[in-house]
Amino acid sequence: MSAPPLDISSVLQGGYAHPLSRQWQGRRTIDKSMLMYPIFITDDASARVEIPTLPGQCRWGVDRLEEFIGPLVKKGLKSVILFGVPMNCAKDGRGTPADDPNGPVILGIKKLASLFPGLYIAVDVCLCEYTDHGHCGLLHKDGTINSTPSAERIAEVALSYAVAGAHCVAPSDMMDGRIKAIKRKLIDAGFGNKVLLMSYSAKFASGLYGPFRDAAGSAPSFGDRKCYQLPPSAKGLARRAIQRDVAEGADIIMVKPALPYLDILSDASQLAPDHPLAAYQVSGEYAMVVAGARAGIYDLRAMAFETTESIVRAGATLILTYFAPQFLDWLDE
Ligand SMILES: NCc1[nH]cc(CCC(=O)O)c1CC(=O)O
Ligand SMILES: [Zn+2]
Ligand SMILES: [Zn+2]
After folding, report:
1. 32 included as an active-site residue
2. Is residue 254 one of the residues assigned to a domain?
3. Which domain of life is it from (predicted)?
4. Per the CB 3.0–4.6 Å rule, which of 44, 138, 179, 185 could disulfide with 248?
5. Could you tell me if 289 and 313 are in contact, meaning their C-beta atoms sit under 8 angstroms apart?
């Protein structure tokens, strides 16, 4: 029994049979300027400590940033986002070490700015790395989030990074009202026309942050983050958070994590079509892709491209990714 002949409208394969015609059907869209590389800076100036759950990534001391970032800048790295990992400081309820002028983030901003004047320096703004309870904001006595002083404190920390020379401040804390509070503070201090505000707008309470919390030592000491990070099924809340942050003055909107939330990214590109849209391919997504490749399930490079291309296809114009160093090589090949 032979199958009936194909109908004219059934046949697509002739349209992409050749490598060149495949390019006409949709060209690779990632380029180096879209990559923002997350880096961990710790308070031991000479440190280079590998992070077991985040293969290939390290915590770096300020004195080693030149050897770490120099070769990447030569290959075309355009931007980084800094995360502070204080190991030798006294954490407290308000996250005092966050804006310590001698802490790793502020020293790191100054060091990178002086070493690499062409490098775009973004800084993650949060309190969880600096509070004794490990939560991202300030707490009431009963352990619940105290929003108003949280937003005020986050804004104060953001301003200190702007003063130190950051080009972009990126609050990841998810406190209500922090975008407005940060924008107000930046404007009042004369940074309104100098510093970009990138909001982690749709940040979900994800299982994919595990390696990051190892890297940054920022797991909460009790409870979880479900009262401020978004529930994974909450499409409506995510849309409202994006619209709110646009209204409060965010310059870039972010969706995080990326791969399990491509529908939200696509929604964001409709809701905020006039804003750059960032996606954070988080630590667990990176670790998953690497683990699968090591298990022989697929080729690392092919899967790194496939996942990031899907993120761009969904609407991202900027990708925070731990694959940035590898992409700098791969994009040259
Ligand atoms: N506010 C902390 C913060 N900032 C960025 C990440 C995750 C980044 C990653 O997993 O790569 C987290 C973890 C969390 O919210 O628990
Ligand atoms: Zn946090
Ligand atoms: Zn953060």
Report:
1. no
2. yes
3. Eukaryota
4. 179
5. no
Q: Are 100 and 106 in contact (CB under 8 A)?
A: yes
Contact (CB, 8 A) for 99 and 162: no
Report pLDDT digits (tens) over 8-67: 888 889 889 999 998 888 877 899 999 999 999 999 999 999 999 999 999 999 999 999
Q: How far is the CA of 92 from the centre of ligand 3 (A)?
A: 17
Inside any domain, residue 18 = no
pTM to 2 decimal places: 0.95
Other C-beta atoms lying within 10 Å of the C-beta of residue 299? 12
Of the listed ranges 101-115, 208-222, 265-279, the least confidently predicted one is 208-222
Its domain, for residue 273, covers: 31-330
203 a catalytic residue: yes
**ipTM (interface predicted TM):** 0.95
The CATH number of whichever domain residue 223 belongs to comes to 3.20.20.70
How many structural domains comprise the chain?
1
pLDDT reported for residue 1: 62
Within-domain flag for 187: yes
For ligand 2, the distance from its centroid to the CA atom of residue 102, given in whole angstroms, is: 20
Q: How far is the CA of 92 from the centre of ligand 1 (A)?
A: 19
Query: Which residue from 81, 218, 320 has its CB within 8 A of the most atoms of ligand 1, so it is best to mutate?
Result: 218
**Distance between Cα 8 and ligand 2 center (Å):** 56
CA 282 to ligand 1: nearest atom: 11
Does residue 226 fall inside a structural domain? yes
User: Looking at residues 189-209, what average pLDDT do you find?
Assistant: 97
How far is 207 from 116, CA to CA, in rounded Å?
35
Task: Provide residues with CB under 6 Å of ligand 1.
Answer: 124, 126, 128, 136, 172-173, 209, 212-213, 218, 225, 282-283
